[in-house]
Amino acid sequence: AKAAGKNTMRFFDPAMQKAVSARLRLEEDIRRGLQAEEFIPYLQPQLDEAGRVVGAEVLARWQHPRRGLLGPGVFIEVAEQAGLVEQVDFQMLRQACHRLAVWRQSPATASLSLAVNLSARLLYQADFVDKLLQLLELSGADPYRLKLELTETMLLDDMPAAVARMHQLREHGIRFSIDDIGTGYSSLAYLQTLPLDQLKIDQSFVRELPENGNSLAIIRAICALAGSLQLEVIAEGVETEEQHKQLQDIGCRHFQGYLFGRPMPLDEFERRVTMAPEE
Ligand code: C2E
Ligand code: CA
Ligand code: CA
Ligand code: CA
Question: Is 123 within 8 Å of 154 (Cβ atoms)?
């Protein structure tokens, strides 16, 4: 009886209870925010070897009426656990597609692509393919300009279903990038069975450049793998000229990171890409 009493005590620990109710409040707040369409895309430029902006990654932000602008660190995990992250993702997809449709109308922006992060939950929805194709059609976006970023761990839950969906979408032009490659413990053999276009070198490896020999070896291996599979490679988290240079030397041709621009509001990104280069 004494032991049970202890357990009960621990269960009703006021600090823990406070944390639980804070989480529930956040969950409710996310639901409300989704209804009110408070989740907006920030865009981080992606550059090619010539330093031209060729597109952007869409990074979710929560424009909270009281708390201000919140990053995904505040809401993605809770949204995932509450089964709400697919709604966040889909709101990003919707806004990305509408932007791509607008960009299509003007020569300065028509060739830009947008990369949207996808959670496993969305990819595993039975009607995801239909919903996305419908969204593309309704919005008038060019499917070839939409890239979906997946992580390797999310694919392993139900490979066959994921692969089938990816093939269907790719037939319509949508492209795929594998985010966080090399950070999981999975075999890389599965990569050749997927309809991929790009591998993304995680910032955890780039961060260690130029000193860390292990990171360098991993980045080299990813670039070699991409070369033999004929995939594009992009490095994220590039913060210094030195890192940029070293990545170029290894054969990486696409870049993203604070060195080239932080995630920014849509209009700011548009100003940047339509501005005449100052030279
Ligand atoms: P991620 O997909 O790996 O995105 C890259 C993160 O690195 C972003 O953080 C970005 O702002 C940050 N970053 C970019 N360049 C640099 C750099 O040079 N140095 C450093 N230190 N960091 C850099 P953010 O925006 O806070 O997003 C964090 C994570 O949240 C993302 O990691 C992604 O996993 C997730 N996320 C963001 N938006 C969405 C979304 O719409 N849906 C889903 N499911 N997840 C999202
Ligand atoms: Ca990403
Ligand atoms: Ca990443
Ligand atoms: Ca990540």
Answer: yes
